[in-house]
Amino acid sequence: MKLSIVIPLMNEEESIEPLFKAIDKALVGIEHEIILVDDGSTDATVKKVRHYAPPQATLLVFNKNYGQTTALAAGIEHASGELIATMDGDLQNDPSDIPMMIDHLTSRNLDVVAGRRAGRKDGMILRKIPSAIANGIIRKMTDVHISDYGCTLKVFRKDVAKNLGLYGELHRFIPVLVRLYGAHMEEVDVRHHARRFGSSKYGIGRTFKVLSDLMFMVFFQKYGQKPMHLFGTLGFLTFSLGIFINLYLAVIKIFGEDIGGRPLLILGIMLVFTGIQLITTGFIAEFIMRTYYESQNKKPYIIREIVVKK
C-alpha cells in the first residue's frame, strides 16, 4: 500500500460525502486506503460513513470521545501504507495538496512534510491571534521553528508516524515529537478553506491545556532521558543555599545573637529539605526512565542507517 490517509472525525455528518468525493478526485492513480476514526460523534457521522465510504475505507468507532490526539494515534496504528497522511475531516484541509506533499517528501528525501495554512480562513480574534501567539511561544520554548503547529495536514514516512508516541493532547506538538525522533522535516504552503459545515471543536478555552502540554514537552525534550540533570542541579543549588544560610545563622548564634525568631532560619531549613526532595525526585525519575526503556526492550537511540563498507 502506497498511502494511508488518517482522518479523525467528531460530529462531521455533513462533511462525509463531499470529503470522500474530494479524496477520490485528488488521489487518482495513487494506491491508497482511508482510515477514519470516529471520536465519539453524537450525530449521524458513523451512519454517513457507512453509507458513502468507498471499498478502501476503514472506520474505527470509539466508544466515547477521547480527543484528536488519541484518534490520530489509533488511525496511525491501523495504517498500513508506506506513507501516512493526516488531515481533518471538516474539509478545511484540501486532499488535493497531498500529491504535492508526497512529491516534496520524496524529491528532498524527507521524513515528514508539514502543511502551512496559506490564507487561513478562520476568525481573527478567537482563532488566528491566539494561534499565532501559541506558535510563537512553542517555537521559542522548544527551538523547533515551524510556522504552523496547528495544521493537521501532514505526510509522514511510516516508521516516523508509528513511533511518535502520541497520547494525551499532544497533536499540536507533533513537530516537536518529530524533531525528538530525529526525523527530517520541512513545511510547505497548503490550501485552507473556510468551514462549510458544523462548528469548530476548538476555542480560546484550550489555551491553558496547550500551556500545560508545552511545559511537559519542554521537559521531555530537554530532560526526557536525563531527568537527574534537572532535579539534581536544582536540588544541589537549593540544598547548598540552605546549608549556607544555616551555617551563617549558626555562627551568629555562637556570638550570642538570637536567631529563633528570624524568618531566615525557616527559609534555610525549608531550602535544605526542598533540596533533598528535589535530589531524591531526580533519583526516582532516573529509575523510572531506566525501567521504561529496559522493561520494554526500548533503546534510547534510533539508528537511521547502517553502512558496511565491503
Task: Walk me through what this model shows.
This protein is of the alpha/beta class and 310 residues long. The protein is 48% helix and 13% strand. The chain has helices at 16-26, 45-52, 68-78, 98-107, 124-142, 158-161, 174-181, 207-223, 228-254, 263-295; strands at 3-9, 32-38, 57-61, 83-86, 112-117, 154-157, 185-190. A seven-stranded mixed beta sheet has the order 3-2-1-4-6-5-7, with helices on both faces. Strand 2, helix 2 (45-52) and strand 3 (57-61) form a beta-alpha-beta unit. The longest helix has 33 residues, at 263-295. 31% of the residues are buried.
Shape: elongated
Low-confidence stretches: none
Q: Main sheet? A: 7 strands, mixed
Tell me the span between the first and last alpha carbons: 33 Å
How much strand content do the residues show? 5-15%
Q: What structural category characterises the helix and strand content?
A: alpha/beta
Give me the side-by-side strand order of the main sheet.
3-2-1-4-6-5-7
The overall pLDDT average reads 87
